[in-house]
Specification:
This is Carbonic anhydrase. By secondary structure, the chain is mainly alpha-helical. The protein is built from two helices and no strands. The N and C termini lie far apart (36 Å).
Length: 53
């Protein structure tokens, strides 16, 4: 299986379990965060934010 196919397979399993209907729209903090892609950085932990903020 190619890496792209592996990612898609994981995403296909993730999507049905994702429930975020309780999250506010627009996001509560009204901030956009632009980051470089560094797999060592977990933006939520680094910035002290939670999903939906």
């Amino acid at each position: 299986m190619s890496y792209a196919a592996d990612l898609k397979s994981h995403n296909d399993k993730y999507v049905p379990t994702k429930t975020n209907g309780q999250l506010p729209l627009p996001p509560a903090r009204k901030v956009a965060v632009l980051l470089c892609m560094d797999a060592r950085v977990v933006p939520e932990a680094a910035l002290g934010i939670k999903e939906g903020e």
